[in-house]
């Protein structure tokens, strides 16, 4: 039935010891192909790896699917909804510019795709997402899945493209979209990068509420040439709640998986309380949406 992928047992690998909030070991992840006796590396040994990844990570570590799956297409609707909503709001005051809308939509989707890839990259670095990355034998080298070592470079390449598109949009509309966009990028990077990432501290819901709520809506309004007003922020509020509910739902589902490396909201308050909180957020989303209609 054609060539099939063959799994090979991973070699003994040095690991970073990640220590959590109580001082206990929360999770481990390979760092590099160094020869060590205790297979433990200090924080300084992998300092640069936090930003660009492990230089000596072998290419045999490959994502179980393809690049399209790695960017998590279903989650891209978060950017699409916010940009579309902001554009519709602006269209009530200024003439709609279809070209600027399309370019901004493409830019926002590329940003979220890059952030999603880095999220998987850093999660695996910390000992999560074990089932998504495989070690393949040389006989299966024809499998063209994303290599772990390629992810940060592809993400950086996408950010270069985003920077060019953003500069063009700023020239055509408002340069205020640049600092707003930078804030969103910083939040997206800090969501999963580092030992004290926002997601590990239980701030993932807040990060999503900001980066996928008011920020893209304000950018969409500015790109169309409309002013930012109190109405813009009120209009963005239900979208912020909706994005927070998306992250909270995922964290409730992943309580068991996250318990070794993160202290998410559901882990801190328990599954039942997290479900109650989710119901409150969803209810507030619909109520605020109705309020915006009047």
From TrEMBL:
Q: Pfam families recorded for this chain?
A: UbiA
Q: Where in the cell is it found?
A: Membrane
Give a Gene Ontology cellular component term annotated to this protein: membrane
Q: Where are the transmembrane segments?
A: 75-94, 100-118, 151-170, 176-194, 206-226, 232-252, 273-291
- Answer whether the UniProt record assigns the keyword Transmembrane helix to this protein: yes
Top-level lineage group:
Bacteria
- Molecular function, one GO term: prenyltransferase activity
Question: Any idea which UniProt keywords this protein has?
Answer: Membrane, Transferase, Transmembrane, Transmembrane helix
Asked if the Swiss-Prot or TrEMBL record annotates the protein with the keyword Glycosyltransferase, the reply is: no
Bilayer disposition of the protein: Multi-pass membrane protein
For this entry, list what GO says about its biological process: menaquinone biosynthetic process; vitamin K biosynthetic process
Read off the PANTHER family from this record: 1,4-DIHYDROXY-2-NAPHTHOATE OCTAPRENYLTRANSFERASE, UBIA PRENYLTRANSFERASE DOMAIN-CONTAINING PROTEIN 1
Protein's name in the database: Prenyltransferase
Q: Which organism is it from?
A: Salicibibacter halophilus
């Amino acid at each position: 039935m054609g060539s099939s992928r063959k799994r090979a047992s991973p070699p003994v690998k040095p690991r970073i010891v990640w220590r959590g909030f109580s001082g206990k070991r929360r999770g481990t992840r390979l760092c590099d192909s160094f020869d060590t006796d205790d297979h433990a590396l200090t924080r300084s040994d992998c300092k640069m790896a936090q930003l660009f990844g492990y230089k000596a990570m072998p290419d045999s570590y490959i994502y179980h699917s393809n690049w399209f799956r790695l960017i998590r297409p279903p989650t891209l609707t978060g950017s699409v909804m916010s940009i579309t909503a902001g554009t519709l709001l602006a269209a009530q005051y200024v003439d709609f510019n279809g070209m600027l809308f399309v370019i901004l939509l493409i830019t926002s989707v590329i940003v979220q795709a890059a952030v999603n890839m880095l999220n998987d990259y850093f999660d695996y670095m910390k000992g999560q997402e074990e089932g998504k990355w495989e070690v393949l034998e040389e006989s299966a080298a024809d499998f063209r899945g994303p290599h772990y070592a390629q992810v940060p470079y592809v993400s950086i390449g996408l950010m270069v493209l985003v920077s060019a598109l953003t500069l063009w949009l700023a020239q055509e509309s408002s340069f205020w979209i640049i600092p707003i966009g930078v804030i969103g990028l910083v939040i997206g990077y800090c969501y999963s990068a580092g030992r004290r990432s926002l997601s590990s501290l239980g701030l993932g819901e807040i990060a999503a509420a900001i980066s996928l709520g008011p920020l893209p809506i304000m950018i969409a309004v500015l790109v169309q040439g409309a002013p930012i007003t109190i109405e813009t922020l009120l209009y963005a509020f239900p979208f912020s709640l909706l994005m927070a509910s998306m992250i909270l739902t995922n964290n409730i589902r992943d309580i068991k998986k996250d318990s070794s490396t993160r202290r998410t909201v559901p882990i801190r308050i328990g599954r039942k309380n997290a479900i109650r909180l989710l119901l409150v957020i969803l209810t507030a989303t619909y109520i605020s949406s109705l309020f915006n209609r009047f």
